[in-house]
Design brief:
The protein has 335 residues and is an alpha/beta fold. The chain has one domain: Alpha-Beta Barrel (TIM Barrel). Strand 6 and strand 7 form a beta hairpin. The longest helix is centred in the middle third of the chain and has 18 residues. The protein is globular and about 75 Å long. The protein binds ligand PBG.
């Protein structure tokens, strides 16, 4: 773009198009709509259970009946999809609860699809919530220390994804960041005849301090070490593109960047480079920061939330995964 000056005043005066709300709306480049929103929900065994999370006002661990209430309310406001996480009663070294036929996510999926069939139900596929050590893969501990076994983990992930889909999930979203898991899941779903079920992969998922509050909700903080051997280094952008390329080759239908706001450059590059349906996950820490500052009257919570989501859209996100999805849908209606 090169602009030559014309005469004393520039011929092009951007302010001309900012004179009225109607004109501003006419030339607006990016829109926010409820149709783009996904609401994460946390399922836990029980009845009438609605356990609040201190660091995330408005977010709860929900028993399936309460989860249905929450999903119904969000859906009524125009949120088309939910992303389910499970908190099992028992954890072990094989993450049995993740692929148990009557696991908590499987139960929640069945209930949602029965009572609210139009709601798109996406399940997070990971093992950390179900492992006693809190890691996303199988851990081998010996004299050399503890390490994550990538390849043996793939079988468990594929089995988990398959059990979600067998329960009725419309889409699976692997968040574990093991290498090769998209292919492993795709192969297993195809083998079982679920060739039409899409995979939304957490393709560029960074090892991030912004996940702090989530680990309180999901009770999935690693008992030792951290996730830096499988999640990405915050310093790397080219690597994020390679991660996304791999997941696309392996069969991902939608690719995700996570976290969102601190990674808009990644989002932009992923969308520009691949042109695939792209999701941004505004994670727990992003939500908590806005809630906390808003509650203190330090920022306008609603305005900051909308501006942040719009920024994700501008950077290239088609899909916005946010704990504020229901509120945002309500705000969009009020507008
Ligand atoms: C599971 C998983 C995590 C998140 C989504 N799936 C936590 C983690 O990787 O430690 C984070 C979501 C959030 O912070 O809102 N692996």
């Amino acid at each position: 773009m090169s602009l030559q000056p014309v005469g004393q005043f520039p011929a092009y005066r951007p302010r001309r198009l900012r004179q009225s709300p109607v004109l501003r709306a006419l030339v607006r480049e990016t829109q926010l709509s409820a149709a783009q929103l996904v609401l994460p929900l946390f399922a836990r065994a029980g009845r009438k259970l609605r356990r609040p999370i201190a660091a995330m006002p408005g977010v709860f661990q929900l028993s399936p009946d309460e989860l249905l209430v929450e999903a119904t309310r969000a859906h009524g406001l125009g949120v088309p999809a939910v992303l389910l996480f499970g908190i099992p009663d028992r954890k072990d070294a094989k993450a049995s609860g993740a692929y148990a036929n009557n696991g908590i996510v499987q139960q929640a999926v069945r209930l949602l699809k029965k009572e609210l069939p139009e709601l798109l139900v996406i399940t997070d596929v990971c093992l950390c919530e179900y492992m006693e050590h809190g890691h996303c893969g199988i851990v081998l501990s010996d004299k050399a220390g503890a390490r994550i076994l990538n390849d043996p983990t793939l079988k468990l992930l594929a089995r988990t994804a398959a059990s979600h889909v067998q329960a009725g999930a419309d889409m699976v979203a692997p968040s574990d960041m093991m290498d090769g898991r998209v292919l492993a899941i795709r192969t297993e779903l195809d083998r079982l005849g679920f060739v039409e079920t899409p995979i939304m992969s957490y393709a560029a998922k960074f090892a991030s301090a912004f996940y702090g509050p989530f680990r309180e909700v999901a009770e999935s903080a690693p008992k030792f070490g951290d996730r830096r051997s499988y999640q990405m280094d915050a310093a790397n952008a080219s690597e994020a593109l390679r991660e996304v390329a791999l997941d696309i080759q392996e069969g991902a239908d939608i690719v995700m960047v996570k976290p969102a706001l601190a990674y808009l450059d990644i989002l932009y590059r992923v969308k520009t480079e691949f042109g695939y349906p792209t999701a941004a996950y505004a994670v727990s820490g992003e939500y908590s920061m806005v809630k906390a500052a808003g509650a203190n009257g330090w920022i306008d919570e609603r305005a900051v939330t909308m501006e942040s989501l719009l920024a994700m859209r501008r950077a290239g996100a088609d899909i916005l995964i946010t704990y504020a999805a229901a509120e945002v849908a309500r705000w969009l209606k009020e507008k």
